[in-house]
Each structure stands twice: as structure tokens, then as C-alpha cells.
Amino acid sequence: MSKEPSAQLAEPSSAVSDNDVLLDESKRKEMFDGKTDESNKKFVEEFIRVLLSCRGVSKNVKTMDILRLAHTCKRIFESQARLIEIDGPVRICGDLHAQFPDLIRLFAQGGFPPDSNYLFLGDYVDRGAYNLEVLLLCLSYKASPFNLEEECLENDLMWSDPGSVKGWEPNTRGASFTFGEDVVHEYCKMLDIDLIVRGHQVVQDGYEFFANKKLVTVFSAPHYSGTFTNSAAVCKVSAGLEVSFEVLVPEDMKVQERKPTAEATAAEPTEN
Questions:
Q1: Dihedral angle computed from the Cα positions of residues 104, 107, 113 and 118, in that order, rounded to the nearest 10 degrees
Q2: Where is the Serine/threonine specific protein phosphatases domain positioned along the sequence (predicted)?
């Protein structure tokens, strides 16, 4: 048997009471701005679950939850231009007039966000019986998935790997992509940088260059997992942007410092 929707979405604050926050806009802002992205993500996901699993909001959603959702969406709207560009495919919806069951039918037919992208033209409320439900669900989907673009970027930063490919190809890890030397050179030029330092991949010597020393992988766990014979390395960047590496050899755990030549900079690190 499924559990009843939770009525406690908002996180309690030890600093101020709910009544204080409700009455004081500055306290509300301080409280809500203090929430982490992960906390906001979980909050919005739970908010959507509650809206979709009950027939009304009067007994399932607290005023504090509505204020928090409104604050989250306000920040999103304020960060966007008045005229925004939307890539297709997109489903454009007209008047809703508080017809919550029909809004659910629209989502069921076209796909619930974020599987489908929607643009609403307004007239969310009045004339129908579910003003609050319609408005809150639309706002919830506006805020969810929370920071999807940032999450995708974080995923690619974590899981993408350099490889012997041209451009981008699916990663054998099963997540993100493998990128080629051409991608590294393109992005170094675009971002006006000399060197990309990355991790999250075992390399035998603790560090390994790629794309004509425009990218270096650094791994700092020697004898990884007890089964690898790899060394570990730490990348050192001086005040003058000279790059060197300290290598930790697993056999005797001796630190070996590999210093750059006088001419070496971040643009062209030296490995001795």
C-alpha cells in the first residue's frame, strides 16, 4: 500500500519560527536563500509528487511550502530575459483556466516534463475549480529538474574522458562522452587557456598528458584499489604559472619532484 502524501515539505528552521517567516519578507528571503541546490531539488521533486498524488492542496501543502516554491521560481524568472529563445521540440499550450485534471491529461498525452518541453501562454487561473493546483504544478515544473543544465555539465565534467576519437563519441563507461584532441584544442582556444587539468581516471605514472600537452590527467591514489601498480601525482603550479609534478611511487612511497625547466609554463609543462 502506498503511503499518504507528506504534509511536511518545508524544512524547519531553528533560527526563526514559521510565523516569523510568513510575516517578514526579509526573513523569508534569508531562510530560502540559505537552502542548497540539492535541498531545493528534493523539495521540488516532493512538491510535484504531492500535487500529482492528491486531489487538492488544502491539507497536503503548507503555506511555507508555497512561499518557498514561489521564491525559487522568482529567482529563475529574474535570471531570464523577458524575451527568451526556446529550442524545439516544444509543446505550446493556451488557456488552462484552473482545469487541473485537464492539465494532467495534457501532460499524460504529450509526456510529463522534463521528457517534453512546454510553453504556456498564460491564463492559468480563474473560472475553473483548481486555481492553486494548476499554478503550483506549472511553477514546480519550472523549477524542476532543478539546475538540470548545471547537473548535465557536472556529469560531463566528472565522467567524460579523453580518447583516440575525433569530436565526441559515447563513453564506454556508460555515462557522458569520450572527446578527442580536436575538442581540447578547440576549447582551449575558445576559453583562452593553456592547460586543462582533470582527474577521475587512473593513469600509470600519476599524471598523463593529452592533446600536445593541452590537457593533463592527474591521479593521486597510488597502488589504486590494491590491484593497480600506478604511481600517484600532485600537480604544482607556481606563482609564475610554472607547472611541475610530485610523484608518489607505490613501492617505497618516496616522493619524487619533477621540476620544470626555466622556460616551462602552464602553456607547456615539462615532465622529466
A1: -110
A2: 61-259
Contacts of 21 (CB under 8 A, 6+ apart): 13, 27, 28, 31, 64, 67
Closest CA to 90 of 112, 48, 119: 119
3-state SS assignment for residue 257: strand
Domain stops at, among 95, 117, 146 = 146
How many domains is the chain built from? 2
- Could you tell me if 99 and 195 lie in one domain? no
Stated pTM of the model: 0.46
Helices within 13-99 (DSSP H only): 18-23, 25-33, 37-53, 63-79
Torsions phi, psi for 93 (to 5 deg)? -115, 140
